[in-house]
From TrEMBL:
Keyword line: Membrane, Transmembrane, Transmembrane helix
Record protein name field: Double Cache domain-containing protein
TM ranges: 7-30
InterPro entries: dCache_3 (IPR029150), Sensor-like_sf (IPR029151)
Organism expressing this protein natively: Rhodovulum strictum
Record-annotated Double Cache domain positions: 42-177
């Protein structure tokens, strides 16, 4: 090998080693920046998702509590008057669904029998106690409850409030929001990289 070739080879190896020594930490640093940025974005998405969930839970519970305080509702639940409940809520339910995202509204007799489903007026009388523990607990405690629970229609955000008539507990009213796509799309709308 000629002297000239050895010099070119030595310079080439030196340049490659220098480039490797300079580029490796740079690439490692860039990867770290990307990882930290991704984690920060995921943390922000989690916070937005949690806030959206808490808002929907509070909305469901507040609406259920408001409905439970209507004297006509209290009388109808006490009398198990499905026709009166239908007259009060079925006409406006489509609007509630469209404008507020309420997909379910149901009245229960203690401990957990479906008295009237506003979203399915012809389906009632079924025992929900085997899988709707929040309904059982709200009726047993005579206290409001809210959260995520699986029901016949799938996983939902539910707010349940006790209904009393003349000082006596007569059942519960439940408001349900769908938890899947609507909640996630609302949280994702502000974050184009999250989904």
């Amino acid at each position: 090998m000629s002297f000239r070739t050895r010099i070119i080879l030595a310079i080439s190896v030196s340049v490659l080693m220098t480039a490797g020594l300079v580029l490796a930490p740079m690439l490692w640093g860039i990867k770290g920046l990307i990882d930290r940025g991704t984690l920060r974005e995921l943390d922000q998405f989690e916070l937005r998702l949690q806030a959206a969930l808490e808002y929907r839970i509070a909305s469901a519970l507040t609406t259920a509590a408001l409905v439970a305080e209507i004297p006509d509702v209290q009388q109808a639940v006490a009398a198990q008057d499905r026709d009166r409940l239908a007259a009060l809520f079925v006409p406006g339910f489509a609007r509630m669904r469209a404008e507020r995202g309420i997909v379910q509204m149901q009245f229960h007799e203690p401990p957990a029998t479906s008295l009237f489903r506003v979203h399915q007026p012809d389906q009632f009388g079924d025992d929900l106690s085997g899988f709707r523990k929040t309904v059982v607990e709200a009726n047993a405690r005579k206290a409001p409850l809210a959260g995520l629970e699986r029901g016949r229609g799938g996983l939902g955000i539910r707010g349940i409030s006790p209904v009393a008539h003349d000082g006596q507990h007569v059942g519960t009213v439940e408001i349900g929001h769908r938890s899947e796509c609507g909640l996630l799309s609302g949280a994702c709308a502000r974050q184009r990289y999250a989904a």
